[in-house]
Each structure stands twice: as C-alpha cells, then as structure tokens.
C-alpha cells in the first residue's frame, strides 16, 4: 500500500529531482522520466497550496461574509 502523499513529502521529492537533474549525469530517457515526475509533483503542490488558500479565506470571513485582510503579526 502506497503512503499518502503530503505536501511536505512532495516538496522534498521535487527538491531531490531538481538536484538530480542539475548534475547532468542522467541519460536523456531517465532525465525525461524525472522531469515528468517533477511536473506531476509541482502540480500536486500547487493544488495543495490553492486548497489551503481557499480554506484560509473561508476562515477569514466575518459574520457578513466580508473578507478582511489583516497584517500577519508574529508572536
């Protein structure tokens, strides 16, 4: 059974793929496979970020349904 993909795991794998491709040591066919995997991971991460942004927007709505932007204040 495959482990559930998480944003963090996808980003780590994507970073590894970039490092592998940057070395230039892979045969063309293998490099293409890595590139395709990287594109899939990039799309997955982008989708997760979009979903998270939508959830945050819902949480920021006030009683009237208005979204109020507030500056981030680190504690």
Automatic annotation (TrEMBL):
<dbReference type="InterPro" id="IPR037004">
    <property type="entry name" value="Exonuc_VII_ssu_sf"/>
</dbReference>
<dbReference type="GO" id="GO:0009318">
    <property type="term" value="C:exodeoxyribonuclease VII complex"/>
</dbReference>
<comment type="similarity">
    <text>Belongs to the XseB family.</text>
</comment>
<keyword id="KW-0378">Hydrolase</keyword>
<dbReference type="GO" id="GO:0008855">
    <property type="term" value="F:exodeoxyribonuclease VII activity"/>
</dbReference>
<dbReference type="GO" id="GO:0005829">
    <property type="term" value="C:cytosol"/>
</dbReference>
<dbReference type="Pfam" id="PF02609">
    <property type="entry name" value="Exonuc_VII_S"/>
</dbReference>
<comment type="subunit">
    <text>Heterooligomer composed of large and small subunits.</text>
</comment>
<protein>
    <recommendedName>
        <fullName>Exodeoxyribonuclease 7 small subunit</fullName>
        <ecNumber>3.1.11.6</ecNumber>
    </recommendedName>
</protein>
<keyword id="KW-0963">Cytoplasm</keyword>
<keyword id="KW-0540">Nuclease</keyword>
<comment type="function">
    <text>Bidirectionally degrades single-stranded DNA into large acid-insoluble oligonucleotides, which are then degraded further into small acid-soluble oligonucleotides.</text>
</comment>
<dbReference type="GO" id="GO:0006308">
    <property type="term" value="P:DNA catabolic process"/>
</dbReference>
<dbReference type="InterPro" id="IPR003761">
    <property type="entry name" value="Exonuc_VII_S"/>
</dbReference>
<keyword id="KW-0269">Exonuclease</keyword>
């Amino acid at each position: 059974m495959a482990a559930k993909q998480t944003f963090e795991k996808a980003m780590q794998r994507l970073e590894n793929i970039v490092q592998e491709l940057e070395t230039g040591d892979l045969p063309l066919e293998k490099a293409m496979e890595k590139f395709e995997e990287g594109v899939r991971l990039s799309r997955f991460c982008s989708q997760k970020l979009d979903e998270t942004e939508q959830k945050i927007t819902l949480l920021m709505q006030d009683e009237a349904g208005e979204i109020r932007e507030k500056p981030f204040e680190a504690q």
